[in-house]
Hints:
This protein is mainly beta. It has one helix at 77-87, and strands at 11-16, 26-29, 38-39, 42-47, 56-62, 65-71, 96-103, 109-110, 119-136, 145-152, 157-162, 167-170.
Amino acid sequence: xxxxxxxxxxxxxxxxxxxxxxxxxxxxxxxxxxxxxxxxxxxxxxxxxxxxxxxxxxxxxxxxxxxxxxxxxxxxxxxxxxxxxxxxxxxxxxxxxxxxxxxxxxxxxxxxxxxxxxxxxxxxxxxxxxxxxxxxxxxxxxxxxxxxxxxxxxxxxxxxxxxxxxxxxxxx
Length: 172
């Protein structure tokens, strides 16, 4: 059976942008962002012994990150959240939030009824740290840019995400 190509828009990212209270506010990341990749950055350990001619490389973990270069876009929840961190020159816990990665290219799960479907997609939620790098860019007619990197700050929890109500449900 032949595979089907997935569009980049089917890999969705939501940041918790709440600033008051304790309820998560899931805001879609990606508006005015031309490209981003979730880099897994494998952590390796090499070993060798006198019986082998080659080195053995083991993957012992991952150091995931996602570099973002976006347009300065006031009014977008994610931009405003990150920009506030930048303005306040936030450090340590003030740079942490949670992110949900949604694998919407996979089959959805109907958790509602046939008459009233509620579609959820496989997802993961992970604590993250935001590393702000720069704001500005080229002059002239060019649009101002902001650059930052999102780093995992814990192990991901598997589950599902419902994008209408913006609800993450941890897998049992």
